[in-house]
Known about the structure:
- With 195 residues, this protein is of the alpha/beta class.
- The protein has 2 domains: 2-72, no CATH class; 82-193, Rossmann fold, CATH 3.40.50.
- Helix content is 46%, strand content 25%.
- It has helices spanning 33-48, 53-60, 64-74, 92-101, 112-117, 124-139, 150-159, 182-193, and strands spanning 2-8, 11-16, 19-26, 29-32, 82-86, 106-109, 143-149, 163-170.
- The strands form 2 sheets. A 4-stranded antiparallel sheet has the order 1-2-3-4. A 4-stranded parallel sheet has the order 6-5-7-8, with helices on both faces.
- Strand 2 (11-16) and strand 3 form a beta hairpin.
- The longest helix is centred in the N-terminal third of the chain and has 16 residues, at 33-48.
- The chain is elongated, with a radius of gyration of 23 Å.
- The N and C termini lie far apart (46 Å).
Amino acid sequence: MVIFYVYNFVHINIMFAGRAMEFIRVGEKLLNLTKIEETIRKILHLRQLGMSQQEVASKLQLDRTFISRLETMGAVRRGGRMGLMAFPVANKEELVAMANSLGIEQQLILSDQERWQLVEGKSGLDFFNQLMVVIEQFRCCELVLVFCSAKWKRLAEALLDCEVLAVEIGSTPISGDVYVNPKELEKLLEPFISG
């Protein structure tokens, strides 16, 4: 039995023998999105098994540069700089030690008191300039992990030109220090630092 689900003239979903297939029209071509997705998953699986890009390309009759570009497109961390922002935290020293041991190059880890000291006695322009320096330093990272309130999470995602993993540690505004479990931090970062 064949079931057609037509969303518009260029996007079609078909159920055939219990299997979903999705098609889109691009110009004169009808593309099978399901086949494309399956092929990409197969490429990545073979690469995970240790096959070289050339071996995978030969096996699947593809161009090696396609595989290279696919991996580049999806890369989150290629050995580049990593950053950690965490504020306001109760265990700053513990997190700094953990970040250093994991090779996290850029860090902004502040207690609630330190966070307020950044603003005290400064003009708005001085604070703004200091903030711009911090943003510039973190924009050099490929990945930044941010432990903060929801408001700062949205700001980090908007201002940093990199992959941002944000963990909300409290409602805006957070008053007082929050304990961040270093074991959870390490587990969260494990996929990005191993390998």
